[in-house]
Write a structure and sequence with these properties.
Layout lengths: L1 H30 L16 H33 L3 H37 L10 H8 L9 H12 L6 H15 L5 H24 L4 H6 L1 H24 L6 H16 L4 H8 L4 H4 L7
């Protein structure tokens, strides 16, 4: 109980770094003039590569926020709901979501801090803007309360087999149910279906290996955790896109749909390759003598 609470809390600290980096990068890009984009604008927010980085930061931050908040919400449900069956299901979601929240949100905090610094350019290195401090501060969240490598091991060695493999099955069923009612959102539904299929296959393979394939699963655990996290974010973005489509005149909703399209076409598509990496045998790599490294 203590470690679930602490790890979700650290994940939300990482999410805070994502938000801090994203807000500052967007604000700076809207104001900073440098050269001219293809449209003739001097603002760097209109330069395609900067726009790509900003959309990536938004896609990760907003998707990860749903992951972290839902996991925390399930903690409350698991503790307080009057129905034991609902409490049991919520606890499954807590167990599964905790290593993803802790690891993915904190890795993203550091990654997006670096990306924000890239948006700022040389100005990102000076203390005046505070961006360099985000980079320095964010890394510790990947380390304490169980390193992110430990979170990945917890996922593949414990959470995938806990309660006869019930935890990932709940997630896969929930995503499938959402996809069945999302015919009008093929732009994200199609890559999410592909990602889910790859994740389910990798999950089955890792569960089969068990302790006999401990080296292989440990070697691929970080890739598997990222694949699972991105698939969960795809699930989040599908739901956000459906909600945004009900408010076509809202600028916020328009931004949500554009960001969902970015995530679907440029981030979610990496899941199959991550899943493939997660199931590649690694014994020969571990057999290399340490002195040869």
């Amino acid at each position: 109980v203590m470690m679930n609470f602490a790890r979700i809390g650290v994940g939300i600290q990482g999410l805070g770094q994502c938000e801090l980096a994203t807000q500052n990068a967007i604000r700076y890009a809207r104001d900073r003039k440098q050269g001219k984009s293809e449209s003739g604008s001097e603002l760097i927010v209109d330069h395609p590569d900067v726009r790509r980085m900003l959309l990536h930061m938004k896609a990760i931050t907003e998707g990860a926020r749903v992951l972290a908040y839902e996991t925390a919400t399930y903690v409350d449900i698991a503790r307080n709901h009057p129905d034991p069956a609902v409490r049991e299901e919520a606890q499954d979601w807590v167990e599964l979501g905790t290593p993803l929240t802790k690891s993915f949100c904190t890795d993203s905090g550091f990654d997006l801090a670096s990306m924000a610094l890239q948006v700022y350019g040389g100005h990102g290195y000076v203390q005046e803007h505070g961006i360099e401090q985000i980079v320095r501060d964010a890394k510790i969240f990947c380390i304490y309360e169980g390193t992110n490598g430990i979170q990945a091991l917890d996922l593949v060695r414990r959470k995938l087999t806990l309660r006869e493999g019930r935890l990932p099955s709940r997630f896969i069923s929930a995503v499938r149910g959402e996809l069945e009612s999302s015919e009008d959102f093929g732009f994200i539904g199609s890559p999410l279906s592909t990602a889910l299929e790859a994740l389910e296959h990798a999950t089955t393979e890792i569960q089969k290996l068990g302790l006999q394939g401990a080296t292989d699963t440990a070697f691929g655990s970080a890739d598997y955790l990222r694949a699972f996290s991105l698939t969960w974010l795809g699930y989040n973005w599908l739901r956000m896109a459906k909600a945004a489509s009900k408010q076509p005149q809202s600028l916020m909703a328009q931004a949500k749909l554009a960001t969902a399209k970015y995530f679907a076409s440029r981030v979610l598509t990496s899941v199959p390759s991550l899943c493939a990496n997660a199931t590649i045998p690694a014994a020969s790599l571990m057999a290399l003598p340490a002195e040869a490294l």
